[in-house]
């Protein structure tokens, strides 16, 4: 069965302290790996789609990378407004399901 | 552009009552998804529709749950009778075109359900 595991569950950073979030996955033929940001009381907001190993996408202080077994979301010099839960999801070839991880809760302290 | 619109945003109901959650997908999107989110299990897919037809309802937890999509711009998720363990946030999401090579799905703001 397709699975997604995210780590760490929670991460506290000082403003400006760069770090990475991990998303490990097993899937039967990857169609796409997705990163979402979710703020409290809101729905997940789309950030990136990665399709193949070696691919990278960037948006402001965020950069997502993909290997055959995992994806990283790198956060460079984070700001308090980057505080949110970051969700990873994969879509495989066996169906049209998106399998979500349970997320990493990021807190950036001023 | 309007995003996915869900109603109600918050619902508190008594055990045994019927609950109906509503969703309007993004105009032109022809795939619609219902997800449930809890602290313990994260986001779980309940059911998804393609061109108004239910494709996979294997995530619907019990017969108490039912979903319909009578037209391309409206869907409902009904729980009858509701139970306290149904308390969760229910998200609707939509996508276009039909899921193929990693098409993105866009979420609504969610319906927060509390069953007491």
Characteristics of this structure?
heterodimer, A: 110 residues, mainly beta, six-stranded mixed β-sheet, five-stranded antiparallel β-sheet, 11 strands, B: 116 residues, four-stranded antiparallel β-sheet, 0% helix
Characterization of the model:
The complex is a heterodimer of chains A (110) and B (116). Chain A has 110 residues and is mainly β. Chain A contains no helices and eleven strands. Chain A has strands spanning 3-7, 10-14, 19-26, 30-38, 45-50, 56-59, 62-66, 70-75, 84-92, 98-100, 104-109. In chain A, the strands form two sheets. In chain A, strands 2, 4, 5, 9, 10 and 11 form a six-stranded mixed sheet that branches. In chain A, strands 1-3-8-7-6 form a five-stranded antiparallel sheet, with no helix packed on it. Chain A is globular. The model of chain A has no long low-confidence stretch (mean pLDDT 93). Chain B has 116 residues and is an all-beta fold. Chain B contains no helices and eleven strands. Chain B has strands at residues 5-7, 10-13, 19-24, 31-38, 42-50, 53-56, 65-71, 74-79, 88-95, 106-107, 111-115. The A-B interface holds A 31-34, 36, 41-46, 49, 51, 87, 89, 91, 95-98, 100-103 and B 4, 31, 33, 41-43, 45, 48, 50, 55-56, 91, 93, 98-110.
Provide a quick synopsis of the model:
The complex is a heterodimer of chains A (110) and B (116). With 110 residues, chain A is mainly β. Chain A contains no helices and 11 strands.
* Overall outline of chain B: globular
Tally of alpha and pi helices of chain A: 0
* Proportion of residues in helical segments of chain A: under 10%
How many β-strand runs of chain B? 11
**How would the global form of chain A be characterised?**
globular
Enumerate the spans of chain B where pLDDT stays under 50 for 5 or more consecutive residues: none
Please compute the radius of gyration of chain B using only Cα atoms: 13 Å
Query: What profile does the largest beta sheet of chain B have?
Result: 7 strands, mixed
Strand content of chain A: over 45%
What is Rg of chain A?
A: 13 Å
Calculate the mean pLDDT score of chain A and round it: 93
Largest interface, chains and sizes: A-B, 24 and 26 residues
Q: Low-confidence segments of chain A, ≥5 residues, pLDDT <50?
A: none
**Cα distance, first to last residue of chain A?**
41 Å
- What is the oligomer described by this structure? heterodimer
Would you tell me the overall average pLDDT of chain B?
92
- Count every beta strand of chain A, where a strand is a DSSP E run of 2 or more residues: 11
